[in-house]
Amino acid sequence: MNKLNTSSSELDLDRPNIEDYLPSGSIQEPHGELRLRDLLDISPTLTEAAGAIVDDSFTRCFKSNPPEPWNWNIYLFPLWCLGVVVRYMILFPLRVMVLTLGWIVFLSCYFPVHFLLTGQEKLRKRLERGLVELICSFFVASWTGVVKYHGPRPSMRPKQVFVANHTSMIDFIVLEQMTAFAVIMQKHPGWVGLLQSTILESLGCIWFNRSEAKDREIVARKLREHVHGADNNPLLIFPEGTCVNNHYTVMFKKGAFELGCTVCPIAVKYNKIFVDAFWNSRKQSFTTHLLQLMTSWAVVCDVWYLEPQNLKPGETAIEFAERVRDIISVRAGLKKVPWDGYLKYSRPSPKHREQKQQSFAESVLRRLEEK
Amino acid sequence: MGNSSSMLTQYDIEEVQEHCNNTFSQQEIVSLYQRFCQLDRNGGGFISADEFMTVPEFAVNPLSQRLLRMLDGLNFKEFVFFLSAFSSRASLQLKVDFIFKVYDSDGNGKVSFNDVLDILRDLTGQFIAEHQREHVLTQVLEEAGYTKDSLLVPADFMKILGSSDLKMEVEVPVD
């Protein structure tokens, strides 16, 4: 996806001030009479541009750092080779078998339940939930997933929504193993899309399409309907809107925070020693990503279910989103950056540039008055 | 992508270092190479305008279009040379000359009233009226002893801007 188009998403002016996050440049407020020097001296702006070229906080969020090769000498290399043999020849086939078994069990139970128990909604829903949790456990087992859950397990209550930071689609599987959430996801092509339209649909999952502008209102409506429905599965939302490399968090979209219900934050942190769970969707397909996980030693992660939060009086949805992002970032040890994850797919709104232009223009005019 | 420093030989590093007149250390050049490869996603050997614009911090900069014209099609050696003005080891002359080059868009060695006006327009956008911009510029020019028709050369820039408190430095992260 190389074509970038101007962002149609809202990069509102009432977002937290980006200047607070960016390295404080040499932009001091100049004083005194306006001189030729002040108009010719573009060094602050140039420095900012050069700084962005050399290193920027946005690209850092999506960088998958390759691990330092440790197999570089004559003793460690054979050990590493042995490890590769074990991983690919022993573990991988075992895992494939476990996963296949899981699918067989799941499908042979799911279809009867889904089609035969059409009369007894409550029972059917309960069984379907249990089955989805089961297949997710099989998935997690197929990567030798070691997941430590902290905190009280999510409960099935109405008017609550769960938000979590996003590293890969496996976040969903790791969380789903414990609770059969309904999730809101980007509609994917291929076998994932097939799964989405069949099984996940029955859980009450909601789809969106990033590239469609009108989509936003439709999705917002669906979210609201779901949350206020009494018998629906608890809703899980990844407010970042895109996968981030588990060292940073990008800005949370406010959609999840203006539904008028309690927000329960969940923090997920993967241990990189075993495998880098970041799904760099620009570099690999989900299938490749899964295969990579299945040929690693283990997927180790921590999941923290954090204290439910409510909108404080006088707080805007965006402030609420930032507050929850802060809670999650602190818990999982992630750094916050002020960028919208969708900037992966589109360019920043001209509003940011205009803000800079405005502040410079105002300073020039002000100093003109000072004569 | 796995572009580690093994893609860049010691010989390459020294060549680049010489080209930028030792304004960057060898470690910095290696870091810059990693960054160059990170931005050059299609591996074409140069960073295209689109690839630069994927950096939001750069895209929101008012002078980004001007800089893109200067950055267009640069290979790694020239890329480092471009950035050398921002090194802590760069002389004041180098920095002032860089600023001059940004203004002198047609590269004829002279900066006219309109050249300065163009940059001022980039920096202030719609927030100052055109006639007001011209007025302000004319006023400060005359105060400094120039006229609207003066053509500034690098020596003039040095005279106007060349004081020790010109801060134009960027730190290259070295792991």
From TrEMBL, chain A:
UniProt keyword annotations, A-Z: Acyltransferase, Lipid biosynthesis, Lipid metabolism, Membrane, Phospholipid biosynthesis, Phospholipid metabolism, Transferase, Transmembrane, Transmembrane helix
InterPro entries found in the cross-reference section: LPCAT1-like (IPR045252), Plipid/glycerol_acylTrfase (IPR002123)
Keyword Disulfide bond listed: no
Chain ranges of the Phospholipid/glycerol acyltransferase domain: 160-271
Chain intervals for the UniProt region annotation (Disordered): 346-371
Pathway listed: Lipid metabolism
Keyword Plastid: no
Pfam families per record: Acyltransferase
Gene Ontology CC annotations of this record: endoplasmic reticulum; membrane
SMART domains: PlsC
Biological process (GO), any one: phospholipid biosynthetic process
Full protein name: Phospholipid/glycerol acyltransferase domain-containing protein
UniProtKB/TrEMBL annotation, chain B:
GO molecular function: calcium ion binding
Pfam assignment, any one: EF-hand_7
Domain of life, per lineage: Eukaryota
Domain EF-hand as annotated: residue spans: 27-62, 91-126
Signal peptide: none
InterPro entries given in the database record: EF_Hand_1_Ca_BS (IPR018247), EF_hand_dom (IPR002048)
Protein name: EF-hand domain-containing protein
Source organism of this protein record: Salvia splendens (Scarlet sage)
High-level lineage: Eukaryota, Viridiplantae, Streptophyta, Embryophyta, Tracheophyta
